[in-house]
Amino acid sequence: VKNSYDADATKVKISMHNVKEPGGKIIVQDNGVGMSKLNFQKTWMRIATIEKENNPVSSVYKRERAGEKGIGRFACRSLSKILILKSITNMEGENKEELSATFNWDSFKSGVDIDQIPVTISTKMLNPETQTGTTLTLADTYGTWNSRDVRHLRAELRDLIHPKTFSS
């Protein structure tokens, strides 16, 4: 959610499917500026990047960046076995690029050079009317979520948002 804020999203939707048992799915979807393949490789795929220091405010709303050196990526790994990332961004001219990347976290083992781990990445061009934004699908979740866990998550998310912008 902090990454969505940094990407100038005005909306973030979190949906949970079959998470009362392991093997469910959590989807986090925003309407931010998205990431190109180059930006993804330079920032999202690098641990503790200095991007926040080089660009301390967001491009559209000039928000002070809130993300913290890959914490969101590590959170995805701790919640599910597979991450499917789709991000749509504006390219030069009027076209949009859709980036897709799939991470199988079981491939990330101790002692293995991160450059040697297969991450499936693809791109395709989309028409200008396509909405920008990023969707993270956390598939095959590890733990279980009960109603108390969901209420706790909701409370933590409220703490991230200015009260005037939050609606239930």
Question: What does the model show?
Answer:
Helices cover 24% and strands 29% of the residues. The chain is of the alpha+beta class and 168 residues long. The chain has a 6-stranded antiparallel beta sheet with strand order 1-2-6-3-4-5. Strand 3 and strand 4 (96-104) form a beta hairpin. The longest helix is centred in the C-terminal third of the chain and has 14 residues, at 147-160. It is globular and about 45 Å long. It starts with a helix and ends in an 8-residue tail after the last helix. 18% of the residues are buried.
Q: Enumerate the spans where pLDDT stays under 50 for 5 or more consecutive residues.
A: 163-168
Q: Order of SSEs, N→C?
A: HEEHHHEEEEH
Radius of gyration: 16 Å
How many helical elements?
5
Residue share in helix: 10-25%
Number of strands: 6
In round numbers, the mean pLDDT is 84
Sheet with the most strands, sense and barrel status: 6 strands, antiparallel
Fraction in beta strands: 25-35%
Which geometry do the CA atoms define? Answer: globular
Spatially, the strands of the biggest sheet line up as: 1-2-6-3-4-5
Structural class: alpha+beta
Distance from N terminus to C terminus (CA atoms, Å) equals 16 Å
